Amino acid sequence: MIASVIVDVASKQINRVFEYLVPEHFVDTVKPGMRIIVPFGPRKVQGFVLAAKQHSDYDTEKLKPLEDIVDVKPALTGELLNLAAWLTDETLCLQITALKSMLPAAMRASYDKRVTLRSSAQELDRALQPFFMKEPAVMWEEIKKKEHALLPLVQKEVKRGVLDIESVVKSRETKKKVTVIEALLGREELLGKAESAMSRAPKQALVLRYLTDQTGPVPLARITGDTGVSRESVKAVVRNGWAEERKVEEYRDPYEGRSFRKTEPLSLMGQQKKSLAAITETLDEGKHRTFLLHGITGSGKTEVYLQAIDHALKQGKEAIVLVPEISLTPQMVHRFKERFGSNVAVLHSALSKGEKYDEWRKIRDGEVTVAVGARSAIFAPFENLGMIIIDEEHETSYKQEEEPRYHARDVAVKRGNTYKCPVVLGSATPSLESFARAKKGVYSLLEMDRRVNDVKLPGVEIVDMREELRSGNRSMFSGKLLDAMRERLGKKEQMVLFLNRRGYSTFIMCRDCGYVAECPHCDISLTYHRSTQTCQCHYCGYQITRPNRCPECESDHIRFFGSGTQRVEEELKKTLPEARVIRMDVDTTRKKGSHEKLLDAFGKGEGDILLGTQMIAKGLDFPNITLVGVLTADTMLHVPDFRSSEKTFQLLTQVSGRAGRHEKPGEVIVQSYTPEHFSIQLVKNHDYLSFFSREMLERKQSDYPPYYFLAIVNVSSEDLNRVITVSSKIGEFLRRSLGENTVVHGPAASAVPRIKDRYRYQCMVKYKIEPKLTGTLKEILKTYQTEMTRTDLAITIDTNPYMLM
Ligand code: ADP
Ligand code: ZN
Ligand code: ZN
Prior knowledge:
Elements: E1 2-7, E2 18-21, E3 35-40, E4 43-53, E5 68-69, H1 78-91, H2 95-101, E6 109-117, E7 137-139, H3 140-146, H4 151-160, E8 163-171, E9 176-183, H5 187-197, H6 202-212, E10 218-219, H7 220-227, H8 231-239, E11 243-250, H9 270-285, E12 289-295, H10 301-314, E13 318-322, H11 330-340, E14 344-347, H12 353-364, E15 370-373, E16 385-391, H13 408-419, E17 422-427, H14 432-440, E18 444-448, E19 459-464, H15 465-470, H16 479-491, E20 494-498, E21 507-510, E22 527-529, E23 534-536, E24 543-545, E25 558-561, H17 565-575, E26 581-584, H18 594-603, E27 609-612, E28 625-630, H19 644-656, E29 667-672, H20 678-681, H21 688-701, E30 709-717, H22 720-737, E31 743-755, E32 758-767, H23 773-783, H24 785-790, E33 794-798
Parallel strand pairs: 12-17, 12-18, 13-15, 13-16, 14-15, 16-17, 19-29, 20-27, 20-28, 26-27, 28-29
Antiparallel strand pairs: 1-2, 1-4, 3-4, 3-5, 6-7, 6-8, 9-10, 9-11, 21-25, 22-23, 23-24, 30-32, 30-33, 31-32
Helix pairs in contact: 1-2, 5-6, 6-8, 9-10
The structure holds adenosine-5'-diphosphate and zinc ion (ZN) (2 copies).
């Protein structure tokens, strides 16, 4: 038997199938989708089996046998293998990259070398002897950790034949094992032993008594916890032959110890009923269709998702729910856990590698039927999918910004097609692309324009901050917002203050000469971090301590500008000293579980003001929030990105939706320096439809999506000349090769022209129908593949770009 294998070597030259002989003893085991270990040149690497077959087009005499098997059960299903092939083609990535992206990080291979002693340790160079005192083989990593310079010595010893080096492949997945204790005697006997041990060994007697109340194996940790005796005493009981100790495998459960009260389906409002019916009908017909559920905030979209999933589960099928990482708030996860209990696996970045691996295994082993997670959960290895839901479908975090550069929405539609099942995209502010598709009938549009129980949408007021400045208010709070906050404090109601920090930063500037601290490696100003008193580059990590004097003119009038959450917090302390502020930003949520703790505290009323960035814009549902303040609405409008208006409108609408979701009416105050901009004005009436038509006009005028598709070719190198030469040639080649209705822009310097000392240029392709695009782009990668291995030239292609900087 012969296995067709994709090997774990990320190189354009090696991006093809290699064949290996399957040794006799593996013939019954090797299956497509399995990870195996194969010799590759002098190394050993991991590989994925694509197919197992009887014949080869090559001379089988020359084929090498595969070395070992990593999986007992294939890691990837047949469907996922096909999906990987599709992904490779769509995003122009390497096959191995597509395959690896479908598995949890713990399953990616790591490589090391094992150094083995072949004769006695005395013959070995002195410097190396200590490593081989205990065992005849050590990992190269271990030697390197101690002393980097030992490599030449090791090589010398290998030549002399005293040492041997072989490469090894490790998979980093670990299974959690717990020690359990089980009594070997009956109840009466245990009591008898306890009696007689009482005076001599009272701790053991305690353990014996404890065991009489238990049935089956008990975790050792629980015994010590419940009885207060040491592990040693428990082990003594084992040594005496009264009980036995075993290790058992256990799933790590990130929600361990938490119970979820089961919720029952709510009886639906009219619009919810209609939406649900359309979705379940498609499911019952066994057809694929993509729905766009356009429902305002608070219209009850989540309840529709829950009941649609329930419908699929009742047919014995499975469901995937994607939510943006940032709104994978405990609140959202709990709603699924409460409805479907232990049938839910949760996949998000706050889990440890081991936890993620275990959640993934629950999916693959059929122990759960619902997967809730961020972007990569779209690859959940279900085999009988009945429902795929993408909440907040407009979120740009569904696009992966490294290879494979896929959009989860496209993958969802692809899988929905394979399984003939509905895909539901939900949002209060759909992406222009999706809404345009719905209007054209490519997607089915479901509208929910009323809140549950007809709760009123909050009133939105826009405050012109230029006016405030003119009237002498230099604070970051307008008079209006300050009054509103005071009023809430008086009434003991809660509020959310939102600071839009994306595309905005605190920078250091000299007031005398205008000097701005910039990164010497990237063309971008440094961000001031108050907690560490440093200035950092957010692209490359370069950092300096905050200068006290201007490096240019020696003036000491060097200050930081802009406002981060920490500064807002300080100002709040001064202006509203009685207010209890809970701050949520990257700094306060770094620790695992802190996100949840802060939200819990706010939910319990331990804070008056929840102050935060993007991460508080979504998913919050607290009845006592009656005021939402947006400090600076327009910071994102000035980012060089054709989607900046769309993102501004979406975010403001999203934040506004946090207020007045229950009985108490809500109010939203939006502060802006460009209040006349339509993306800010239209938030006032929650008017998505007007926003859509207005923004579509802009896109039409400048030939942007959804009118045109985009593709971007990025070229970078430390050598500016090389970047210019190569990108010019690419530009010419694109113009020459593509159809006449396709527009090619550039090359031009990227919006951030240099990052980590590398110059960056790009060419942009705008097209409607361009059959030659994929072929042309592949040709470019092929042309430069040698130059890319020999020099520092890098060319990346994004066939559906969201990051234009
Ligand atoms: P959305 O996801 O559209 O913003 P949610 O699903 O969060 O809206 O619903 C808003 C609130 O209304 C939630 O507290 C939810 O429990 C409640 N809700 C949803 N549907 C119903 C219903 N049919 N009857 C009563 N309450 C509902
Ligand atoms: Zn200066
Ligand atoms: Zn930098």
